[in-house]
Amino acid sequence: MDGLNGFDADLGYLALALPFIAAVLAPLLTRVMKSHAAWLLALAPAGAFWIFLSGLREVAEGTVHRFGFEWIPSFDIDFSFRLDGLSLIFALLITGIGTLIILYAGGYMKGHKDQGRFLSFMLMFMGAMLGLVLADDLMTLFVYWELTSITSFLLIGFDHTREKARRGAVQALVITGGGGLALLAGFIVIREVTGLTSMSDILAAGDVLRQSAAYLPILILVLCGAFTKSAQMPLHVWLPNAMEAPTPVSAYLHSATMVKAGVYLLMRMQPALGDTTLWMTILPAFGGVTLVMGALLAVRATDIKITLAYTTVASLGLLVMLIGVSSETAIIGATLYLIAHSLFKGGLFMVAGSVDHGAHTREIDKLGGLARSMPVTFLAAMLCALSMGGVTPFIGFLAKEEIYHAVEYADPYYIAIAAAAILGNALMFAAAFIVALKPFVGSMPAEIHDPHEGELRIWLGPLVLGVLSVVAGLYYGVYHEFFSSPMASAAYGEAVEIEIGWVPHLNLAFALSMATIALGIAIYVGSAALRAVLSRMLAAIGWGPDMGFDQAMRGLVRFASKVTNLIQSGRLDYYMTTVVVAVVVALFASMWLADGFPEMPTIPQIKIYEWIVLGLILLGILAVVIAKDRLTAIVSLGIQGFAVALIFMLQGAPDLAFTQFMVETLSVVILALVMTRLKLSPADHRPLREKLPDALLALAGGAGFGLFLLAVIQTPFDSTLSDFFERYSYAIAHGRNIVNVILVDFRGVDTMGEIAVVMTTGLAVLALIRIRVGRRGERTIDPLEKTP
């Protein structure tokens, strides 16, 4: 460890970018190198792992690295990152296990036609998760948070030809994406109420959040984000259904990384939000229920991956429950268990894939006797299961002992938490050996033909993780100094020292640990009977959160269909009426709420030729209203435009007048061309009772715009912008015509957009003009006529 004493921020940027760079290269490399590309692609997470490992000693000594740059200064948003004990250990887990997973995926997906796309998605997720745990700015964290949801959606639905895979992907996206929106709202409330914009600000602010009047909504919104991501009941259903993804996804996203994003968030914000009555009630309640129910459902399952998925749900519940307790010992227990869980659960998921790969089934009842054909996989499975079962000297034992130390108090609160921990851990002990022992012992069923050990890349990952589980336990001094203590210190908010070792001590915690193992063995022996009882109970209950999700989605689709049919009726007159009503309401409401109605102006002295122009405008309006056919109305409509152009000319703006003349001429010509393809008569065949509401609405719109313009005119003129353009039009743009300079230089992009709109409109007009009647005698469709 002596050489690991210097983290470089510039290399930190590289570490964040390496997975994304590899993701871009993955399809090309896989096309060229086939499955061997995984060896090369694994160098990206391995390189990032080494970069983060270089800062291990500094962080262990209490150094906190912050690096980043301004992103959106006007909103005080930075693209900033924080490397401390919590984020560093998460980064090492993400990149270290990620390296093994990329190699594992190369062997597991060998020969798959879309292996390059799969590896690209995996690496993109890795980069997103890495950015999430390192992000310091709240908005940066949210961007990475949602990116993990998007990339996990792509991975869960990778085999998009299967309906279950598509459903699992959508379910995960809806639940975790919805939680992400709640988290965004929570971050916005934090920024608006307290002015805090980063995790560093929040951690340095002490009790600011806890003492804030907005503490309750902040807490609820943050917990919604964390609970959806970390699959707390009843929002857990997406995680078991995500097992439709290929096994490398399950081993990485849904055991070691993504599902722990919510736990990471709770650990990160525990010093600022924790240690309150609400925190210490809500988190243990949800976590305890999730722990026990998840563990029961794990024993009930018969598919290895589903069993492991529910134990992951249970483990996440255990972590949330411990974080909710908020004591130093509980946070230490959560830290030890989180690291242990990442190792043994990632390994067991890879074992599940190895069994499926070698025996072509994951059904526990159809497996047996595989130890002789798959000895390395069996060894890896037992190492991981012993750690998961909390057997010494594995790090799972250290975690379980510390958990029981945290709850060894004669208080109803702690007794309830201890009971949930003992029952949940016992059930998970049984589930661990159901997965790691039953498929490998006994006689081999006749249905299994030619079981075989996978290649190096398939068994290397679980074996390494299993060995690390015991090595970390044996060398617990080094493990605590560099890994668990820095992580627990960052999560607790104060420096803590962890001393627990693999040598048992005769105390209450050890007694509870032994009771857990004894109960776990009993559950393992009676697992078949317990599974039958649980199956009957679930069948009797029937409805559950998973079915509820489907019902909610169907209800949402029906509601959206009704709303769409209501507001998208297909009638142009409805759309136009809605738009005009909204404009009229906006005009009058804004003036009324702001007390901005204008004073009635005095009538100025108007010259005779100005009266003539005004008369032309009124004559044009009258001609449009009384026109008997549409062509006459179109031509009459141009009268107003030409009259306005005359006003511009009389007021000394010939260039503006010329533009107005051109626009009106082109508008009349284009409309006339289009109308020649339609029925030009009659202009409006409706009775007076139907015309009157439209006429009143039109008058209201005209009155609203008139009053609004009067209010604007009566406002004192601010010449700042005019002075700016006058001063810089020639100096910067070398143009003396200020209007032209504004259009072409200062707002050239806007002008280009307007040109694009005109061009698009012209293409639409051209398409409309080219419409021909199909068959002789067929009725010409008039889009301006109301549908019945």
UniProtKB/TrEMBL annotation:
It is a multi-pass membrane protein. GO terms for biological process: monoatomic ion transport. The keyword Ion transport applies. Residues 72-118 form the NADH-Ubiquinone oxidoreductase (complex I) chain 5 N-terminal domain. Residues 616-679 form the MrpA C-terminal/MbhD domain. It comes from the Bacteria. It is found in: Cell membrane; Membrane. The chain crosses the membrane at residues 12-30, 37-56, 85-106, 118-135, 141-158, 170-190, 210-228, 249-267, 279-299, 306-325, 331-355, 376-398, 413-437, 458-478, 508-530, 574-594, 606-626, 633-650, 656-675, 696-717, 751-769. This is Multisubunit sodium/proton antiporter, MrpA subunit. It comes from Fulvimarina manganoxydans. The lineage of its organism: Bacteria, Pseudomonadati, Pseudomonadota, Alphaproteobacteria, Hyphomicrobiales.
